[in-house]
Amino acid sequence: MGEVDPTFIQDPQHRPKLVVTEARGIPQIDLTPLIDPSSPATAVEDLVDQVRDACRDWGFFQVFNHGIPLQSRERLMAAAKRFFDQPLEEKRKVRRDEANPQGYYDTEHTKNVRDWKEVFDITVEVPTVMYASPEPDDQQTTHYINQWPDHPPELREACEEYVKDVQKLSYKLLELISLSLNLPANRFEPFFSKDQTSFIRLNHYPPCPAPDLALGVGRHKDALALTILAQDDVGGLEVKRKTDGEWIFVNPTPNTFIINVGDLIQVWSNDRYESVEHRVMVNSARERFSIPFFLSPAHYTMVEPLAELIDEHNPAKYKSYNWGKFFATRKRSNFKKLNSTFINKFKHKTSSHHLLNPSLSDPKNPSIIHSAIHHHSAMGELDPTFIQEPQHRPKPAVIQAHGIPQIDLSPLLDSTSANANSIEDLVAEVCDACKNWGFFQVINHGVPIESRERLMSATKRFFDQTTEEKRKVRRDEANPFGYYDTEHTKNVRDWKEVFDFTVEVPTTMPTSHEPDDERTIEYPNQWPQHPPELREVCEEYVKEVQKLSFKLLELISLSLNLPANRLEPFFSKDQTTFVRLNHYPPCLAPDLALGVGRHKDAGALTILAQDDVGGLEVKRKTDGEWIFVKPTPNAFIINVGDIIQVWSNDAYESVEHRVRVNSTRERFSVPFFVNPAHYTVVEPLAEMTNERNPAKYKAYNWGKFFVTRKLSNFKKLDVENIQIYHFKKPKELKIDDVVSRVENLVV
Ligand SMILES: [Fe+2]
Ligand SMILES: [Fe+2]
Asked: Which GO terms describe its molecular function (predicted)?
């Protein structure tokens, strides 16, 4: 699918706002009473009530304990993946055409805009009898059969087995819906007992470079009776909430099915239940698979409001129409321009009636927090300490824009050619990035990908352990290195757990923050027993990234018109550099909490490895917007910290950033904090100041500063939380700085 060519571009009013409203979402219904014969009759009644509420208020619901074996679904998902993994040429061997609409295709459109996906359709009854043409008077029929690909060989069997299971579920759901309309349980059965036109679709949504412009499936309603959707853990389905028209993201829940009533049930129920608009968002990082089962009646079915559901006060709202003709028209419209037919055509008169349920329409409803608290997650519960003040909550708008600059470091690796020009270019790029963003990404940086991957997987193994195990290497006042899970930024708890280790072993630090206390203390690392490889993998990684850190310091020196080695002496001995392993578990209220609250880095330089999940946001200097840093495989994200701000006398500024969390995927990241020796006195470099540009900061002692920060995590100190602002010369003090000082009690 490659690039987002103009056929994928939605009209502006239909583009995903990338507003992910997760809220409580669509109702979740437990079907246990249907599969457990010992359930009391009242449990089934209860279930029917839930189905009625869900169909009326949402048109959508999720079911669990549905009786479909997980293996059946997983086998089909795996076979679908194997099928789509093939080259296009292979897949097109089973391409659908006008003669047979079953098979593969990659050019589906919804409302004339191309969908970012490829699909493979399989019909359930073999053969499926359909009208040959949409012409009302033409009674000729045609038989659809399936086109099975050679590869993967198991696809056919996996599909056939899955269909059997889902069909059983579909009948149970029809019974529940019948009962919920006060009809006999088997009221809908005759429409489906013979010559069903049901089919299943395997959907593949590849990662999309412009998820803000395209959709996986544009907004639409399902024309048939019932849809039973299996989706993977990526998610993308959005449902238009009836109360307020908001697009609600359907949070993937393992092993549930998402059910929605289609146009046929809307007509049969005479608008008691409405078919609801939905769409599929795509994302730039992960492919997604989903499998809808579309339950459809025999082609000769005449669809009209059921007699039991109409009376004098509530007359039929639709004229009757022939399902097969309707379906044939729809299918054909994919090949030819037809006068397309929608159910509205059969509606007698438009009657506007909207269900209003104010309790569901407020996304800030406290029940969101409540449900998050009661949901189990890797970190336990979202207790109120995680809740950010409203003005600091991640705005769900994800601005990907161009983002921070990407800098190719290959001129540094290429020592053979006389590449003075490309080094000059590189220095200029670094200068622009530091000045305009304070952040940049580097590629071709020379750190072997294996070293980073080994570190990431050891990190995962460490955090996968029980809290009890991890707390065996918990940091404490005696040693600030090790595991902890109660980090706070600006007094709000961060949704993460971390493991810190130091690079110089041991690292020498001042014993106390008291300015006159000259004593020092040596900190070793605390290595856990498990995973056994963690220590070695960390030490290897450190060696590699340290080389990169010196190269970056040289580039930054050069970019400030200083000699390449100007900053080296601060780091050549007794560095206080340390590395943090971060684990951000999925968070059920990503609109309320942050992985790390907004802050600036106090050290010299940060070199961050992040995985493919993403979450880092940087405050753009030009307009203060939070910009999402899109994960780039194997790149490092670099930012200058407060120390470089001071050394450069504000030529470069340390920029605020924060970390968003999400509800579906855990995230790992590893920042490497480059810090000088503890006895370093930080002040603007002499070369960076002159008469017209005097030093903007007083000198301060790095070790004392660092210890003050570290200790403030354990005790209330009698000093205000320390910030470089404190060393800024008074004439420069602005009201913002004063506000920050007061706010930043703990960083
Ligand atoms: Fe749909
Ligand atoms: Fe940071």
From this structure: dioxygenase activity; metal ion binding; oxidoreductase activity, acting on paired donors, with incorporation or reduction of molecular oxygen
Ligand at minimal distance from the CA of 229 is 1
What is the Cα 626 distance to its own chain's centre?
A: 16
pLDDT tens digits along 173-217? 999 999 999 999 999 999 999 999 999 999 999 887 767 777 788
Q: pLDDT tens for residues 132-164?
A: 888 888 888 889 899 999 999 999 999 999 999
258 alpha carbon to ligand 1 midpoint, in Å?
11
Backbone angles phi, psi at 261, to 5 degrees: -85, 140
Q: Residues 6 or more apart from 483 whose CB is under 8 A from it?
A: 470, 471, 473, 474, 475, 497, 498, 499, 526, 528
Q: How far is the CA of 221 from the centre of ligand 1 (A)?
A: 6
Q: What is the pTM of this model?
A: 0.51
The CA 520 to ligand 1 mean position distance, Å, reads 66
Of the candidates 105, 119, 202, which has an alpha carbon nearest to the alpha carbon of residue 155?
202
Q: Point out which residues pair with 256 in neighbouring strands.
A: none
Query: For 297-342, how does the pLDDT look when each residue is reduced to its tens digit (9 = 90+)?
Result: 999 999 999 999 999 989 999 888 899 988 877 765 544 433 334 4
Closest residue by Cα to residue 167 from 124, 203, 134:
124
158 CA from centroid of ligand 1 (Å): 23
Angle between helices 155-180 and 70-84 (to 10 degrees): 130
CB 728 within 8 A of CB 696: yes
Indicate whether 718 pLDDT > 80: no
Per-residue confidence (pLDDT) for residue 725, from 0 to 100: 67
> Amino acid identity of 311?
D
Spacing, Cα 76 to ligand 2 middle (Å) = 42
Angle between helices 449-463 and 534-559 (to 10 degrees): 130
Q: Which of 42, 118, 112 is nearest to 85 (CA)?
A: 118
Count of alpha carbons within 13 angstroms of residue 218, beta-carbon side: 20
pLDDT band (50, 70, 90) for residue 247: confident
C-alpha of residue 605 to centroid of ligand 2, in Å: 10
576 touches 504 (CB < 8 A): yes
3-class DSSP state of 130: strand
In Å, how far are 220, 455, 486, 734 from 462, measured between CA atoms? 45, 10, 17, 44
Per-residue pLDDT at 343 exceeds 80: no
